Structures are given as C-alpha cells and as structure tokens.
Amino acid sequence: MTIGIAVIGAGMAGKSHAAAYRVAPTLYRPTLPDLRYVSICDVNAEIGEATARRYGYERSDTDWRAIAADPDIHVVSVVIANSLHLEVVRGLLEAGKHVLCEKPLADTLESAREMARLAREASSIARIGLTYVRQPGIAAIRNWIQDGTLGTVLHLSARYWCDYACNPKGQMSWRYKGPMGSGALADVGSHLTYLSEFLCGDMTAVSGGAFTTAITERPLPLGAVVGHGQVDVSSETEPVENDDYATFTAKFGATTASLEASRVAAGYPNGLNFEVFCVNGAASFHQDTPSQVRLYLHDDQPGTNGYRTVNLGSDHPYVAGGMAIDVSGVGFGQNEGFAFQARAFLEEVAGIPESESLPRNASFDDGVHNMEILAAVAESAADNGKTVTL
User: Which of 38, 57, 263, 314 could staple 320 via S-S, CB 3.0–4.6 A?
Assistant: First the structure.
C-alpha cells in the first residue's frame, strides 16, 4: 500500500500541512505504509512550485481538479480561502479522496452543513484540522482536569490575540471580506471555541457578543498575498467588511468562560493564552512558551504555595516518540501540532486501529458545531449581546 499525498494551498498554513506530511512517518509506531508526495496545488504557479520544491513534492498544479483526477493521489489537505472549501471538498470527495480540511469548515453555516452531509455520504474519510488540541501542554491540562488532579472547571479565561492586521497600511485580502463574525472571530476565535469545549465540555449558550472593526479600510495589493505577509500596495482602498476584534461569554452548564479574539493586538504575533480555574487548583498555557505550562494545586504547603512551572517532556501527551529529542527542556511549538494532526489522519486512512493510533481528527459534523457557536456569537453581537442558546 502506498498513500499518495497532495496539498491544495501553498500559503502559510499550506506549508505547515506540506511539512507535516513529511514528518509524520518519523513519528511513533506502528509504521505507516509508504508515502508518496505527489503535488502542491496553488492558483499562483510560482508559489506552488516553490513550496513543492521546498518540501520534496513531485510536482505542482494550479487547478485543484488535477488533484481530484489523479488516481495516484489518495490524501488531500485543503488549505485555501474558506469560501472555496465547499466546491473543492465536494469535488475531492466525489473523486474518492480522503480530505483533511482546515478550519473553519466553510464561509457560511449553510455551506458547512452541506459539506458535513457530503462527508457522511462519502466512501472516503473527511476530517477537519483543529490543531491546538494536540499541543502537549493543552492536552496535559485537559488530562489533569479529567483525572481529578485539577477536577471540575469553575471558570476559564482565554484570549487569542494576534497582530497580523494591526498595520493600517496592510493590504486588503480575502480575510477582510465577509459578514461580521467572519473576521477575527472565525480566524482565531474558532480556535478558542473548540479549545474551551475541549477543557470545559459542551457549550450551552453564549452572551455578551461584541465586534469591533478597528481599521475600516485597507489598500489594495500590487502583488500576490501569501499568508500574513506584506506586499506593496496601491493608493486605492476597499472597506473592511468584518471584525478585527470579538469578545463573548460562554456557558458550559455551571461553568463560565470569557473569550476574546483580536487580529489587531500589536506586539502579539501569535498570542493564544488561557487560564483555567478548577476545584483543586488552576493551570495556564501561553503560546509563546508552548513547552511549559503553569500549574497550581491547593495541596501545596502554606507559605510556599503558588504557581509552579512544569517543563513538558516524555511524561506528557504527544512528546514521547513525537519529538526527535523527547525530553523536557528541549522545546517545541505549533508546527509539531500539524505533524501530530497529519500523523493521526494518515493512521486512520491506513486502517491502523484507533486503539493503536493518536486520537482521531474531528469530523465535519464537529466543524459544523464549531461554526454554529460562531454564528451564535454573531447573533448575540447583532442584538446588543443577548443570550443565545445552543
């Protein structure tokens, strides 16, 4: 058995998927089947060719239909603008490809539900990438909640602050088009929603939704835009249609969370941070130090109690066998999460039993649920922060 692999989208996240498939067979056991790295597809031929060369893929394509038509390709990552997901995923599933789609699942809830329907009826596997659940520190904190070390969550405070859009001279792109709620909330806030449920359980309601568009217009680019990179711009501008900043409160039964997402937080290139307070103590995670977490337990001695720093190593999720040097103090970051995600997807495609595999990736139905939460936040924000039940 040989699994042929392609990635559609050669931008920032597309490179992460391309690299992750290269790393995946070096991780854990049992051994994966032989992998063939076939194509990187991007409408920008130059960018697609460069990414294919960089990560050792055999060729590049400019039309996703070439991927769908190739019988030597079995696994495809879809890492393109959300508005294109439905068309591309539909074609790939109809061609019998196994699909790993980036989040959020689509640009509209209607499209996401249609994608979930297609996935349920497909003969192949369709999964969505929710990468942060594979951060060793976040997985460790969840384990401490569930095994009673921390115990029941009392409340959660989480934020995802980014600064990729804080420059008013930064160029217009697809990220700034679409209704309120499709900006910072969909881009980085979608991570907060699934992570909050990963830690606290099922979300039951949202309230206090509020959006801000801090930079109301942006200049048009003069060249191809890749990820969050900057290019030369023209003097012509277009209005920003969606949210630069979003905040809301979430309910999980008796548990409450305060969640905040921004793409205009100057000085925070990738600032995912949270603190969770539980019956037996508390824990916090900061993306700028992802190989450490902070832990506080009530049974610490008076006079010396308080947060301690835990260096993550082979005693924690994903690290043992998942790093070339899998001991504490070596360090790791977000890129490894993509490798664990790719490995889990390839294990499922290869038919390796779930009991011998990494946790499976989320389903398209889970992706719809994530978007239902985002839609509820948008509904709350549109009606002065009203409570919306899920």
Answer: 314
* pLDDT tens digit sequence for 3-42: 999 999 999 899 999 999 999 999 998 899 999 999 999 9
Q: Which residues does 144 contact at the CB level (< 8 Å), separation at least 6?
A: 150, 283, 295
Q: Give Cα separations from 125 to 206, 351, 360 (angstroms).
A: 32, 11, 11
Q: Structural domain of residue 300, as residue ranges?
A: 136-332+369-382
Greatest C-alpha distance within the chain = 67
Do both 45 and 23 map to the same domain? yes
Rounded to the nearest angstrom, the gap between the alpha carbon of residue 100 and the centroid of all alpha carbons in its chain is 12
Contact predicate 36/73, CB 8 Å: no
The set of residues, in sequence order, having a beta carbon less than 8 Å from that of 99 and lying 6+ positions away, is: 76, 77, 78, 89, 92, 93, 119, 124, 125, 126, 127
- Residue 301 in this model has a pLDDT that exceeds 90: no
Domain total of the chain: 2
pLDDT tens-digit map of 84-130: 999 999 999 999 999 999 999 999 999 999 999 999 999 999 999 99
How big is the chain by its Cα radius of gyration, in Å?
Answer: 21
Q: Are residues 27 and 167 in the same domain?
A: no
Same domain for 164 and 95, yes or no, is no
Q: Please, what's the b/e burial string for 292-319 (b: 16 or more CB within 10 A of its CB; e: otherwise)?
A: bbbbbbeeeeeeeeebeebebbeebbbb
Dihedral (C-alpha) 284, 290, 292, 295: value to the nearest 10 degrees?
10
Bridge partner residues of 155 (DSSP): 256, 277
Q: Is the peptide bond before 30 cis (omega within 30 degrees of 0)?
A: yes
For residues 83 and 93, the answer to whether their CB atoms sit within 8 Å is: no
pTM: predicted TM-score of the whole model, two decimal places: 0.95
Q: How many helices (H) and strands (E) does the chain have?
A: 10, 18
